[in-house]
Amino acid sequence: MSPELAVELIAEAVFTIIEILLVLIVPGLLLGIVVAVVQAATSVQEQTLTFLPRMLLTLLMVVFAGHWLIQTLVDWFANLSTLIPGVFG
């Protein structure tokens, strides 16, 4: 295995992980900011007001983007499986 191929495989894996996590994390982050602003404006400091909406939104993102998430992982593994014989052969 050449160093260039190793770097390419690692970079593609990291990019895929970041791409998948951004779909799940960013909406929850944005909702958390909105809830924090509402809490600051109303002086209500209840912990469940930040946790529950973010958890539900993350669950909804898994439901709605689940097909794309699985397809992205399947594509990455398919690409990896085509490269394995060339790496070790």
From TrEMBL:
It is found in: Cell membrane. InterPro entries: Bac_export_3. It holds the Pfam family Bac_export_3. One of its GO terms (biological process) is protein secretion. It is a multi-pass membrane protein. Keywords: Cell membrane, Cell projection, Cilium, Flagellum, Membrane, Transmembrane, Transmembrane helix. One of its GO terms (cellular component) is plasma membrane. Its main location: membrane. The chain crosses the membrane at residues 13-39, 51-70. Coiled coil: none annotated. Belongs to the FliQ/MopD/SpaQ family. This is Flagellar export apparatus protein FliQ.
